[in-house]
Amino acid sequence: MVVPIRNEAREAPALAARLLRVGALCCEVAVIDGGSDDGATEVLAALLRRGAGGAATQAGTATATATATAAATATATATATATGTATGTVTISSAPRGRARQMNAGARRTRAPILLFLHADTELPPGALDLVARAVESGAGFGCFPLRIASRDPRLRLAARLINLRSRLLCSATGDQAIFVRRDLFERVGGFPEVDLCEDLALIRRLCGRAPFRLLEAPVITSARRWEQRGVLRTIALMWTLRCAWHLGVQPSLLARLYAEAR
Fold it and tell me: Which domains does the chain have, with CATH numbers?
């Protein structure tokens, strides 16, 4: 699993809890920081150390280790091992800024045969890793989860339904939906195009037609913070405009500038 982050110190407690839950399930988790200046990596590393130690204490016969450095290329490792359970690892390292570059770096730093790309503010459903493994075993080469936005706002519920409908009808996924892909397929297409925006759309375009796409059943839950901070309708309109512009061939570098200005 690969989790790109940048300036996620506020999200760090919830993210650490989610990573420790997933890491304990024999999952290799690589958190890739893209140049945070809010202390996100240090905060996350400390929380992972504390969480791994707490999990070990509760397990009784378990051991936990964690190390961290605060250098520019900070690396933190939290490993929890309990008798009778599988071992998972969570590592934090850095890469050049840019979600595509960070996720490609994370893919290179892991060895699992299936890659799952998760945003820092998105929570996987229970049993997510088993769902992904079963989908791949049954023939899927790549896919994603349905999306649920953590809000009661009917506009955001409708937006999520439209995103899910699009994924049911088309070979379509966004980064918020936690994209998964077989490693061999990911490497065959060259990974994420290292563009400034819409890297998720560009990856899916590379993958479509090369292997079966699968939309899973259980949804991921993503934070509504992006919509709430910038305005719900304004953000929905911006996202759909950027997506349409990308499909029409507008350069991602120009879209990134428009996105930055709109924020």
Answer: 2-227 (3.90.550.10)
